[in-house]
Model the fold of this input.
Amino acid sequence: MIEFADTVFFNNGLVMACLASNPWKPGHTIVVWNDASVKNLWELSLADAAHFWKIVSGAQKILREVYGAFNVPIMYWNIRQVSVHAHLIPLQSTTDDNLVDFTKEFVVTAVTREITENDLSEMPALKRGMEHLIQGD
Done:
């Protein structure tokens, strides 16, 4: 069984990026604001919101490079107000990019597929990419 800690490839205390435990596609990442008491994006200060989106954008760039993705859409919805988080899902081609089919399949698949050891194969590249991106600021 994969341990949660094994899926985390970035954590600066405020924001964490990890591979999804029920990924829709290889590289499916969740970027989370670490303070669980914050349930909605509007509860963050402008500086904290900017920091959150900076990490989301950085992870998006790294995922595109590591997975050779055609696109890495950001999905942010907080219907249940669980936490401030965004899903990033590397897409390999334009056929992956049909948003209607994408969201329908995402909802169905995300509850049936579990992360595997194979999903962790890109962890070193993800960690290096995020470290390099953050150090470049």
Notes: The chain has a mean pLDDT of 83. The longest strand covers residues 15-19. The first helix runs from residue 46 to 67. The radius of gyration is 14 Å.
